[in-house]
Amino acid sequence: MDALTFLIMPVFLISLYITFKFIWGKEGKGKQGEEILKKSALAIAPIFPIGWLLLEWSQSIFNISYEMYRDLLGVLVGIYFITQGFLIFYYKQKRQVKEVKE
Questions:
Q1: Which candidate in 9, 36, 58, 82 could, as Cys together with 15 as Cys, close a disulfide (CB 3.0–4.6 Å)?
Q2: Which tens digits make up the pLDDT trace of 78-102?
Q3: Residue 91 pLDDT
Q4: How far apart are CA 59 and CA 93, in angstroms?
Q5: Which of 50, 57, 51, 73 has the alpha carbon at shortest distance from 1?
Q6: The Cα angle at residue 60 between residues 49 and 84, in degrees rounded to 5
Q7: Which residues does the chain have with pLDDT short of 50?
Q8: Which residues 6+ apart lie within 8 Å of 85 measured at CB?
Q9: Helices (H), the chain
Q10: What is the DSSP code (8-state) at residue 59?
Q11: Burial class (CB in 10 A: 0-12, 13-18, 19+), 10
Q12: What is the maximal distance between C-alpha atoms in the chain?
């Protein structure tokens, strides 16, 4: 699990930076910023419940240890924030391309 954490941590930190910079910055305060946040929130909303359901399902079948369960929940939270950061970046770039074309 250490190798997986080593690989995911930099991507997680970059995504967290993108997310918080956008939310707390000027871009996130405007109407277009709120629209981007809504789109990204709608897209990532099912990740945590589905991931937790799959984790509970695998817990009942494979009887994984508490430490493994805890680590997998951490990975699930990391995937949640990585996806949100990626989607904010994607929608922001898409909006900028749209503005340039107009």
A1: 82
A2: 899 999 999 999 999 988 888 787 6
A3: 93
A4: 39
A5: 73
A6: 20
A7: none
A8: 14, 15, 16, 17, 18, 19
A9: 2-24, 26-29, 31-44, 47-62, 66-101
A10: H
A11: exposed
A12: 56
Minimal CA–CA distance to 48: which of 21, 84, 18, 14? Answer: 84
Domain boundaries, the chain: 2-101
Per-residue pLDDT at 97:
84
Say what the alpha-carbon torsion angle 93, 12, 69, 43 is, to the nearest 10 degrees. -10
What per-residue confidence (pLDDT) applies to 1?
Answer: 58
Cβ atoms 95, 22 nearer than 8 A:
no
Q: Which two tokens stand for residue 10?
A: 């930099």
Distances (CA, A) of 101 to 35, 89, 96: 19, 19, 9
| Encoded amino acid at 89, one letter | F
- Residue pair 10/50 in contact (Cβ under 8 Å)? The answer is no
Burial of 84 (0-12, 13-18, 19+ CB in 10 A): buried
Q: Which two tokens stand for residue 99?
A: 């503005």
